[in-house]
Structures are given as C-alpha cells and as structure tokens.
Design a protein that fits this description.
Radius of gyration: 19 Å
Helix content: 10-25%
Strand content: 25-35%
Number of strands: 16
Strand order of the largest sheet: 10-7-6-2-12-1-13-14-15-16
Length: 247
C-alpha cells in the first residue's frame, strides 16, 4: 500500500499546474507607478478614456495588472499588456457584483489593453473616494497549484482520503487570494458559472481570481470572499465571466 507521501506525489504529478501568485506590498508608494500592478486601485487608462459606470454610478477599480510582471500568463491573455478590473461597491464596505434572478452578474468590468507599450497609458484619478487601500503587487511563480476537491476526479479524492486518513485540501494546496493561472480556489466546491445561461460552446475557462486580502486595507469581496474570472472568446455577450464565492 502506498504511503501518504507517495500518494500525494502521484496526485501532484497528475494535477499540479503552474500559477502566478500576487504578493502585496503595502508600502507601495515607494514603487508608485501607474504602469505597474496594483490591488485596490486602477491608476492607468488611455488618454481621454472614460471611467466605467453602472446605472450612472462609477465603479471602483480593484485591480490593475501589468502582464509583463506576471511570470505565468494564461493563454487567454496572449497579446494583453494591461488588465484593469472594476467592481460595484454599494455599502462602502465590501465589493460585489449586482445580481438579479434573471440576469448574469452586473456592475463589473474587465478592461483589456493590447498595446506595444504601457507607456501609452496615462495616470488617472477615480471620480469617487476610494473604498479600500491600495498596494503595489509583484508576482511569484509556483509549480504546485492543486485543484479543490470539486475540480479533481472524485475517485482520486476518495481514494486519497481513505488511504491517507487526511483531507485532500489539507495536504494538496490550492493557492488562494489573487493569482493568475492554476486552479480556482473555490470556496463552494467548484466554480460552475451557474449565473450564466450557458451552452456547451460558451463555457469559459478559468483565467484568474482576486481574493479578499488583509494585506490591502478593506479589500473585501462579500464576506471575505473571492472573485473568479473566466474567458471564452466565442461568447456573443463578451468574453469575460465572473463568479463570486463568499468566504
């Protein structure tokens, strides 16, 4: 019978993915540049570009990612030089897209820039007070990002837990908070994109996640939750998908 180490090694060989993990630097003013990567802020736009709104209310910039700083880039972002993420904030406390019974999540935007140089972007100031702090971020590469139980073969999960006596999630780590690539660190078993009326041809692939982070003052999604972003270029309503899980 294989021991726990052998089984964990077998599962990592089968499932492990590379990913880019965000590392916040709260003293980001030392690295203040509108061309870099940030959590809790969007600092760059094209000259004359309008700030995004939902139902006449400005959205909050929650992330700006300079893709040249991301060591592992998902293939869906090939050709993208900068990515900016905006999300609704209704109560001044936490960020969350708006939901209704018959529509996909509203009140959010992923803005892509496909530029030869991010030097074409200019510094912008949001048209509303910030609802959270801002931190400059860098990224580190990992090679051992593992799926949550819902994304792995359930037979593998059952066999691993039976043979080792250890919960899958305690031994085989899925990196949380903000990352690009790898596996979604789902709080609710798995990301299903269930808010969207999907046909098989329109189902997205996971690209990145943004998580509540105590390294950035008041950066909170719902009650300590996570935003997951998927992509499918063939979707008529736009390529980006969003799903939020509460913590």
């Amino acid at each position: 019978m294989p021991n726990a180490y052998q089984l964990a090694h077998e599962m990592r060989c089968k499932y492990a993915r590379t990913a880019s993990i965000a590392v916040p630097h709260p003293d980001g003013t030392k690295f203040d540049t509108h061309h870099g990567s940030w959590l809790g802020a969007v600092k760059a736009a094209l000259p004359g570009e309008s700030w995004p709104e939902h139902e006449g209310v400005p959205l909050h910039g929650v992330a700006q990612i300079c893709l040249c700083e991301v060591p592992v880039r998902p293939p869906q972002l090939r050709g993208v030089s900068m990515l900016c993420v905006f999300v609704h904030n209704e109560d001044g406390y936490s960020f969350a897209p708006k939901h209704s019974l018959d529509t996909a999540p509203q009140g959010w935007l992923v803005r892509e820039y496909r530029l030869r140089s991010t030097a074409d972007l200019v510094r912008v100031a949001p048209p509303l007070p910030p609802a959270c702090g801002a931190a400059r971020i860098t990224f580190r590469r990992v090679i051992d990002d593992m799926p949550r139980e819902g994304d792995a073969d359930r037979r593998d999960v059952a066999d691993f837990e039976r043979e080792t006596g250890c919960p899958w999630y305690e031994t085989l780590k899925t990196y949380g908070k903000t990352k690009f690539g790898g596996w979604p660190c789902a709080y609710q078993d798995q990301v299903t994109w269930s808010d969207y009326p999907l046909r098989d041809t329109a189902k997205p692939e996971f690209v990145f996640q943004i998580g509540s982070d105590d390294g950035v003052d008041n950066l909170m999604f719902g009650d300590g939750g996570m935003l997951f972003f998927g992509y499918n270029a063939s979707r008529p309503d736009g390529p980006w998908f969003l799903e939020m899980h509460e913590g």
